[in-house]
Amino acid sequence: MKKLLNIEPLGFPWKTQDPFLFCAYHRDEYPEGNENMGVDFDMLRGRNVGQDFMLKDGWRMYHGTNVPGFPYHPHRGFETITINKEGVVDHSDSMGAAGRFMGGDVQWMTAGRGVQHSEMFPLINDVEGNPLEIFQIWLNLPKVSKMVDPHFKMLWREDIPILQQKDENGKVTTIDLIAGTLGNNKALDPTPNSWASNPENAVGVYTVKMEAGATWTLPKTSAEASRSLFYYKGDTIEIEGQKIGSGHLLEAVSHEDIMIQNGKGASYFLILEGKPINEPVVKHGPFVMNTEEEIYETMKEYGKTQFGGWPWAEVEAVHAKDKGRFALHSNGVEEIK
Fold first, then answer.
1. Residue 251's pLDDT is what?
2. Can you give the pLDDT at residue 240?
3. What is the pLDDT of residue 145?
4. Which of 126, 78, 90, 120 is closest to 289 using CA atoms?
5. Residue 154 phi, psi dihedral angles, 5° rounding
6. Is the pTM of this model over 0.85?
7. Strands of the sheet with 258-262, listed across from one edge
8. Which residues touch 247 (CB under 8 Å, ≥6 apart)?
9. Could you give the CA distance from residue 184 to residue 188 in angstroms, rounded to a whole number?
C-alpha cells in the first residue's frame, strides 16, 4: 500500500489538514536590540513598517513598528500552539495574563469565546544578534467548545518529554513530544477544552531532528487521523524508495508505520496528526466558527466589547529586559522558571 498520499512544496503559511487550521514557521536573524528591546530607526528604512513580511536582511518586523512581532489582536473559536525553538517571545492578553518563553518552551492557548493577545519578540541582547525560530499552529475547536472561557498554559522545556532513539548504526533521532503519545511515551496534558485533551482524537504534535544517515520509524496511529510531515530543513530523505528534498509537505497514511531514511546532514521535521473534527469551518481573519451567522455575531460582539479591551499601557507590550521565563495567569498565579 502506498504510504505517501501527497508531496508538495511548503508554501506560506503551511498547508494543514483537519483538525488543524494553520501553521506558520518563522526564522528571523534579528540584529542587536536598542534600549527599548527594539530595532533602531535607521535599520527600518526600506521596510513596510506595520506590515513587514519581507525577509530583508534575514528578518521581518511583521506587524511591529519598534519591536518585531504581532501587537494585540483578537481570536475566537480555536487554539494557538506556539513552539519556540530559539529566541524570546513575550505574551500579553486581555485577561491580564502575561508571560515570557524561550527556546524549548511551548505556549498553548485556547481562545474560546474570545481573547485579545500579543506576541512580541523583544531583542533582549544589545551586543549581539537575537535569532528567533518559532512555529505557530492553529488547532480547531469543535462547536461544543468554541465558546469556552479563554485559557493558556505553558509547557516548559524542562517538562516536555524528549525522546532519543538510536538506530542499529547508532544514529540518533530526537523527538520533542509536544502532544499525543509515541510508544509508551505520553506528552504533557494540553489545555482542558482542547480537541487534543481526549486521547481518542489521536492528536499528535512532534518536532523531530534526525542525524545524518539516521533511520527512524514514525509509529502508526488511528486510521481515522490525518497526518502531515513538514520537512522544513535538511538535505534529502528517503521513504519507500522515494527521495525527497527539504522544503516539502508530506501527507501520509496514519494507520501504517512510516520509515524515514535520512541522507547527508541533519534533517528537521514538524509532524501534525489527529482525527478530523468534521464540522463546517468558516474563517474570517482571526475568527473561526461553524457558520457565517456566527462570524457576523462574533464581529458584532467584538465591536462592542473588544473581548475585554486591552489592559496594558503599550500596544507592543514587552516585559522588562532582565525578566526571565515566567507565566502570569489571569487568576494571579505566577510561574517563574
1. 98
2. 93
3. 98
4. 78
5. -105, 135
6. yes
7. 215-218, 258-262, 236-239, 242-245
8. 9, 10, 231, 232
9. 13
Contact criterion met (CB below 8 Å) for 190 and 109: no
201 near 275, Cβ under 8 Å?
yes
| Residues in the chain, pLDDT under 70 | 1
Residue in this structure with the C-alpha cell 496534558, named with its chain if needed: 189
DSSP-based three-state secondary structure for 142 = coil
Cβ burial 97-130 (10 Å sphere, 16+ → b, else e): bbbbbbbbbbbbbbbbbbbbbbbbbbbbbeeeeb
Q: What is the dihedral of CA 157, 271, 133, 285, to 10 degrees?
A: -110
Task: Write the single-letter amino acid at 79.
Answer: E
Nearest to 88 by CA among 123, 52, 127: 123
Write out pLDDT tens, residues 193-242.
Answer: 999 999 999 999 999 999 999 999 999 999 999 999 999 999 999 999 99
The H or E element containing residue 72 is strand 69-75
Question: Beta strands 248-252 and 4-9: pairing type?
Answer: antiparallel
> Beta strand pairing status for 172-179 and 204-210?
antiparallel
pLDDT at 24: 97
Is 162-274 CATH 2.30.29.30?
A: no
Rounded distance between C-alpha atoms, residue 87 and residue 28, angstroms: 9
Whole-angstrom distance, CA of residue 210 vs CA of residue 215 = 8
- DSSP per-residue string spanning 228-275: EEEEEESSEEEETTEEEESSEEEEE-SSS-EEEEE-SS-EEEEEEEE-
Question: How crowded is residue 212: how many other Cβ atoms within 10 Å of its Cβ?
Answer: 13
Strands 226-233, 248-252: parallel, antiparallel or unpaired by DSSP?
A: antiparallel
